From TrEMBL:
Sorted UniProt keywords: ATP-binding, Kinase, Membrane, Nucleotide-binding, Phosphoprotein, Transferase, Transmembrane, Transmembrane helix, Two-component regulatory system
Protein name: histidine kinase
Organism expressing this protein natively: Saccharothrix variisporea
EC number(s) stated in the UniProt entry for this protein: 2.7.13.3
Superkingdom, taxonomy of origin: Bacteria
Amino acid sequence: MSVVTSVVQRLRPEAVALKAAPREFLRTHAERLGQVTAWRVGRELLALALIVVLDVYPGFIAGPEQVHDWRAVPIAFGYAGLYLLRLGFPAIAMLGGVWVVFGYEHGGIAIVIMLAYAAGYRIVSWQRALVTAALGLAVYMLAWDMSAPTLSGPLGSWVILTVYGMVVVLPFLVGRYTAQRNALVAALQEREERVVRERRMVSRQVRLRERNRIAQDMHDSLGHRLSLISVHAGALSLDSGLGEKQREAVQVLRSAALTAMEELRGVIGVLRRDEPDEEQVRRTVDAIDELVDGARRAGVRVSLVRGGQPCPLPAKVSHAAYRIAQEGLTNASKHAPGASVQVTVKYEPDALVVEVRNNPPRVKPRDGAGFGLIGLGERVRLAGGMLHVGELPSGGFRIAAVLPYEDTAASDDEPSDEFEVPVEQAKPATGIRKWAGVGSIVLAGVVVLVVVAGYVWLGSQPLTKVVTPEVYERASVGDAEADVRARFPGGSSPVLSDLREGSEPEPAGASCEYFVTDEQTYTSGGIKVVRFCFADGKLVEKKIHLHHGA
């Protein structure tokens, strides 16, 4: 009992998988139907039209005995059904096509080629592909033996194999090669996209680590120094020996230190993008008025010009506008002391323009490192805007930025050249991927070479005598035997089996000659053989019959 239970438990997962297989099949093909495009529908319709024209009506490659009456309609629908069946069951469609086409006398080479190509393209497993090809050969041999000409000797065997090789095997291998190459290209594209994503992730991680390191250094060093200044200034303000002016100056110094601490926290918040920046809430474009008033109290000759209709701005954009005005006033006081400064905030129809310009300085300006402008440029870029910095023709200096009204900030995932991180180069493709599909195309080439070589060899061998339709038509009953025989082809004896098989009994007392006609089609159901019978020095009979060799 335990053995039976164990067997049932082992088979239960497979039973569940078999039960879910129909649902999975329907779900997969429903998804494929959802991906149908007009191009694919047009391609399928074109293929169906080619099948009808080549195999049904007028049947350009089906032979002269192709059906051209009402029976062509069901044949056309049958071929169309087989062609569409390949979308879900390519192996069954190919086997059915081989049986229908080679088992009945109505042509269909084009449909077989298309079905064989589709089977090779759509069957993924090479084991299933090999089994399908073997079953196709068995079905082909059985169908050929039932209706198509069965030749004997080396020529007959070679015709049977080469027709299958050229019509079924060759398209099958070409389809398999195409599928393998497409799969390889898709895998390489996916791998390239994955490498790009990994490079961006690594670059972003490096940038974040560097920003956090800079922020930590600023907090530990500069923050510590500013805290000491604030503490000492607070202690100094309590000294009773200071006068009123000195005490006021100390308070200004302490206030500046505290403000610097707040500014430092804002800068650290920008560097640490994963932390919220509280400065963006207070330092906005509306606070530029307070900034200008503070500069005036410090002795800077500054004017503020506003224009346009104000509108709501994203936090990053509004804060970037404030920083532009602040950096412009700071640069003017440092590098152009005593010069007049003009701050402009203008709401254009499509963007916010913030500009700070100063006149030429009265004294020689001090050189600066320019780190403030570098940081300002990064801030404007993160807000999605553009920054312009440069000297004016009059000798002054100008800082101007164009900021968007929408939140179109540049993505941190886009690695710039300075932050580009080298990623280990992709390893060369493995032997299987490198040679993907080559085996199929090599086999296809071997099939073609073997077929060509075989027919070249057979062409050098003695074959049966063959007569043309003109010889048959020119001979008339009653013609002299010598005149008719003079038009017979020369050559060696036939290599085919007895050509008398399938013919009517010979006339009594007559001597008959049998020849193969050079007009042969595989749909005729046999080999066309002509017979000339002579008696008393005259042609007494000529007939055509179908020969079925053993």
